[in-house]
Specification:
This protein is mostly helical. The chain folds into 5 domains: 70 residues, no CATH class; 130 residues, Beta Barrel (Barwin-like endoglucanases); 104 residues, no CATH class; 118 residues, no CATH class; 97 residues, no CATH class. The protein contains 28 helices and 6 strands. The protein has a 6-stranded mixed β-barrel. It is globular and about 80 Å long.
Length: 624
Amino acid sequence: MPDGWGNSPAKDKREWITKATEQRYYDFCLNEDFRRQYFIDKSNALGKCIKKNPLFVNEKACVKELNDNADKLIRQYSLGRLLVKGDNRFLSDDLLDLLIFMIDSSGKRNHRQSVFWSRAMTERFNKNSFYSPGASYDANAACTLLRNPHIARNEEIQLRLYGKSSNMRKYYLSQLTDVVMLDPESLAAQRLGGADFDGDMIKTIADDLLNECVKRNYEYDDLNDRSNLPLLYIPSEEPVTRNANDWHDRFVTVRDTFSSRVGQICNAAFDRSIIAYDENSNAEERQRCREQTEVLSILTGLEIDSVKSGVKPDLSEYLVKERRAHNLFLKYKSLLELDRNHAWYEDSPQRKIKQFFVSTDWDKVTSNVERLPYLAKQLKENTKRLNPKLAKNSELFTFAAKSDWKDSLDSNILSSVGFLLQQYEAVLSRIRACRAPIKNKASQNDIDRILYSRGQEDVIDSDALYAEFSKLSPDGISSIRSELTNQSWHLMDRDSRLDFLSEFLPEFEDYYNLLTDFRFGGYRVLGDLICDIDDENNATERKKLLRSNDSKEFAEMMEAYLNKSHAQSYRQAVAVACRALMDKIIKPKKAVPYVVALGKRDLLWELLPEAVYTHVLAVKKNAE
């Protein structure tokens, strides 16, 4: 297979599991028709403009959104989250049985009710099938059903989609398009990792190639659950009885309730499944790992049930005696999840990921799952992206058809609109600067030393402390610093420090034990944090959102940001205020030429999206 694509993967007649994902990535990067249709299908202001004039798809806002979607897709690819035909649905019993159960069997019925009763009683669920209302996939196909996370191949099943024979189900249940129904008398639910009908979500996969791969696990064509792969049975344990009056028993009960090892078991099973389902591995080793994977699947259920039973399964054979290095896929996944903040002596997450790819001999990696990060990286590096040239104003707008169109604009209005746009961008710039984290942390090493001495370096992160306390207003930080000096914080006893914190920092109650403790200098942490943050504020003043020399327009837009709802982004809040101010200068439809004349075309989609369409130069389809 090629590392990247210069032409559409759809032209390749071969089929492979990642083809749909690679096709979508190619579409975002290079398929001009797809890129246009992507916005047109949204039916928003930008989509309408692109439908009228396709050259709008080359605007910076469009290119950025397409590139962002491509980056998200390649990240999902590297983590094994591929695009496949199918859907996600809630698992359910046959709801027609529920309707029958709700009918009073002893009551009198009219003719219509009697017909319903007699037909419903004889309408039995098709064996080895599932009913998926509103499904878009082939009714004759066999689909794979699974529930994440699943460990062994025994936890996935294949069933045939219910045909069109069940008119009663179609009439009464066809609107339940988020539900998949199974035969209650089969073991289908138990096969799905012990699933039940209380809201469990499962995946229904209709991809032909994936289903063909799963079908290789079946020995017979009838998809009979009883005659194919053995069902993994999770035994029930007799609950342990503990003395509620014994403090140690209470402690053990609480500890066991919140100390789940499911993640460790899943990782151990995943390590073995790489070998168990790798066709290039040794047959004997493959069989041994398959058996261990199935055992670990059962142990996962026992570990979950231990919260109620109090009986913890023995995992020493898998987590202690036989330790395996994490496979490459899990290692890459853990690197992606690393916090961007890191100690000065550590490599950055980006550098660690780069070293991960460089240090691995990918030609020797035989597992397709482990190769996914590498394949995603190669796809990104070897598939070019369009870098379209921005269209001229005369190619987009009717008012710009003449070369001297700017001469007809009112100079006073042009100046006012230009000033407002400059203030709008300045507000956004200041907000971004104020939201940026503290850079100068002169006392951070002292804080790290204190946390290490107290044995809390893994519980409390100094970067997190800086981030939390940086949320305080600059004036509040300055005031607390003065009070620390005036009240001699370093000489206070514990009770006095608690009173001080309750008065000035009531929202940081979770850190009171650290900030008031004399042991290993815990009380010094507060002074270090406040002084560092205050010094940064005083040095740059970037934390002051409103300043004395701000214009009236700037202040109004900043006030809109300060008073925004939680549902709004900062850009949305400021844009609404800016539109209101622009309305006082000129109406939206008339403002579009002025914004374009000022060279701020990108701001149209933030400030005047609905006003652009009337000015768009229409392009006929045959002229595209």
